[in-house]
Amino acid sequence: MGSGNGQLLNLTLKVWKQKNAKAPGSFETYDLKGISTDMSFLEMFDVLNEKLINEGKEPIAFDHDCREGICGMCSMYINGRAHGPMDATTTCQLHMRHFKDGETITVEPWRASAFPVLKDLVVDRSAFDRVIAAGGFISVNTGNAKDANNIPVPKPDADKSFAAAACIGCGACVAACKNSSAMLFVSAKVSQLALLPQGKVEAQDRVLNMVKQMDEEGFGSCTNTGACEAECPKEISLENIARMNREYILANVTK
Ligand code: SF4
Ligand code: FES
After folding, report:
1. What is the pLDDT of residue 141?
2. 107 and 77 in contact (C-beta within 8 Å)?
């Protein structure tokens, strides 16, 4: 984590601190010197936390796991944008070279009633897990390994399914939406299977159950502002929402 060829930045951080879901939160200001532009945003937080621990202060709680842009844990608002200023980038893959020396950076947790703040920047995103669980399973034959391409899938469908499956469940779509709608996430999860023959068997139950769970979790409704697609680090397309709506209407009339 050396400074490499990068420059060093002095920064002021304004970070949301909140003890638990019930406590009122507020911003704390931290001064940080000598941050390499080669560091990721989370490495910068590691440096800040090490400094706080050395000073006998409480470190800032934030979620992270893979640090490779695949787990969806590193959720936070940076300067008013979900995952910060770069498009198609998770916080763990955001580098400090995108910030200026002397800059003040404001960091907040996701704000949506379905994602309660647990502590500082950590929110409870288990509502997403319950939506996925409500989708159930697919009836694939789990016998011997099949030959590749045993079940023919048209290439355009495979591509769209793959693109939908890229959703990492980070929740930026919910956080970016003024209604806290989870439609982009749920539609990605519905679409990745609805597009494939293997997913057709339970398709109708899946969309009905996932939408029902989404509503029960308290996410808002979609008013087509497109903020979700704009902030999604995996560039999940709004097309998936249209597909989910079609699947949902079809399931409702045929079930
Ligand atoms: S749709 Fe995009 S923003 Fe929403 S959870 Fe999936 S990856 Fe994150
Ligand atoms: S820590 Fe896994 S996506 Fe950022």
Report:
1. 78
2. yes
pLDDT on residue 93 = 98
Ligand 2 atom showing the smallest separation from residue 71 Cα: 2
Assess whether the C-beta atom of 168 lies below 6 angstroms from ligand 1: yes
Split at pLDDT 50, 70, 90, the class of 5 is low
Copy the structure tokens of residue 81.
Answer: 């944008």
Instruction: Scan for tokens 């010197």, then name that residue.
Output: 33
Q: Tell the residue nearest (CA) to atom 8 of ligand 1.
A: 170
Residue 3 has pLDDT above 60, yes or no: no
The answer to whether the CB of 65 is under 6 A from ligand 2 is: yes
Question: By the 8 A CB rule, do 174 and 188 touch?
Answer: no
Q: How far apart are CA 136 and CA 202, in angstroms?
A: 8
- The answer for 28, left when phi > 0, alpha when psi is -120 to 50, beta otherwise, is beta
Tokens of 42: 């989370």
